[in-house]
Amino acid sequence: MVDTRPLAVCLYGPTAxxxxxxxxxxxxxxxxxxxxxxxxxxxxxxxxxxxxPDAGTLARAPHALVDIRDPAERYSAGEFRRDALAVMGRxxxxxxxxxxxxxxxxxxxxxxxxxxxxPQADADLRARLDAEMAALGVPAVHARLAAVDPVAAxxxxxxxxxxxxxxxxxxxxxxxxxxxxxxxxxxxxxPYRLLCFALLPPERRxxxxxxxxxxxxxxxxxxxxEVATLRARGDLTLDLPxxxxxxxxxxxxxxxxxxxxxxxxxxxxxxxxxxxxRQMTWLxxxxxxxxxxxxxxxxxxxxxxxxxxARNLRGDLRSLC
Length: 321
Fold this sequence. Notes:
The structure is a single chain. By secondary structure, this protein is α/β, with parallel strands linked by helices. It folds into 2 domains: 244 residues, Rossmann fold; 62 residues, Orthogonal Bundle (Histone, subunit A), CATH 1.10.20. It has a 6-stranded parallel beta sheet with strand order 3-2-4-1-5-6, with helices on both faces. Strand 2, helix 2 and strand 3 form a beta-alpha-beta unit. The protein starts with 6 loop residues before the first strand and ends in a 10-residue tail after the last helix. Monomer. One of its GO terms (molecular function) is tRNA dimethylallyltransferase activity. It comes from Plasticicumulans acidivorans.
């Protein structure tokens, strides 16, 4: 069967694997336009700790879906899918190719698999769950989730108030665990032919060294001051999704006097490495992606070569991988 869907390129990998540098090289060598697939880069005024590309880089290689929310706001995976598809449409209309780059794997999954049709949100139930979290603490409500949906609870961090709330909301509205809904979800065909590449470090030690070097550069660039400015606003709390971005909670707690600077640094390193491990686990399960060794030479040329072949292919893209 002839596949006439427009082509898009996905480039994903763990944190600190060199995705941004490779994406910029692709933009400079081909007709690509970058769409950020990163749940932290969406927030304004969170630049250093998220490793957001600087103004010069963004001017040279614009990134869509960066700086689109205030840190006090929430942003769902469904909203990302809606916004990403809208931007992809505009890019294709301009005769260019969407290049989706990032490490938020749930966001990528909304594009490759679609979203389950979950029960609609209920304002009264959410208000009750908010009050329960305020009275008992988020970890206690997470424990209640574990009793009715242990699989979801194992996947959701005990302080991730937004996702805990949604999982309990789905259960109370439907009588079925969120895990059941997601398991029974039928895969929705993407409106795009997605050519996916996973940027993977050859050795875990190498990735850990990159993470450590990047963190030290962030601290030298003023990461602590950035968090102090956010903390001083008065309208942000550690339960917000923005402040759950890796590193921000640990620096916030350092500013609260709960740790010293070296303890804070070690906690950020540990959290970042754990995050990278989760990303790697997800990536290893992506059989449709072509694995590329991060840091190797010639990666942009390889991606462009496969893309050029794919332009003339109207069948199964996996035959190229």
